[in-house]
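Subject: for your reference before the review

Hello V.,

The reviewers asked for a structural picture of the protein, and I figured it would be easier to keep everything in one thread rather than splitting it across files. Below is the amino acid sequence we used in the manuscript, unchanged from the supplementary table.
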Amino acid sequence: MLAVTSVYGCRYCSWVHAREALKSGINQTEIVRLLKGSIDSCPEEEAVAVLYAQHWADSDTKPDHEAISRLVETYGLEKAETIDLALRMIRVGNLTGNTWDAFLARVSFGVLGNAKQNNT
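And here is what came back from the structure prediction:
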């Protein structure tokens, strides 16, 4: 979730996913690194999925064939399909949050929403 959010930059999703990551035991330093796009502290068994998630988001949901093959090879077809479904759901949430921020900025003449975030 944090890997995809790092690409889309939704502040609402960043907050929610960071809170959930903290609850699951991920420390604050690791969360900050993931939100910056770094996987240095990612557990080895999750690294392929996190890299795939970043690539998936960066490629506008069109990952390279090699990336898909590596995901399936690493986790199996069923888990790879589950990861893909989760990525689609996360994308919808991130894009919804960003759209809401843009709406708030427009109706408030830049006082609220993403304009406020960029000015602080």
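For the response letter, the relevant points are probably these. The helical segments are 2-8, 11-23, 28-35, 44-58, 65-75, 77-107, 114-119. Residues 18 and 24 are 10 Å apart (CA to CA).

Happy to draft the paragraph if you're swamped.

O.
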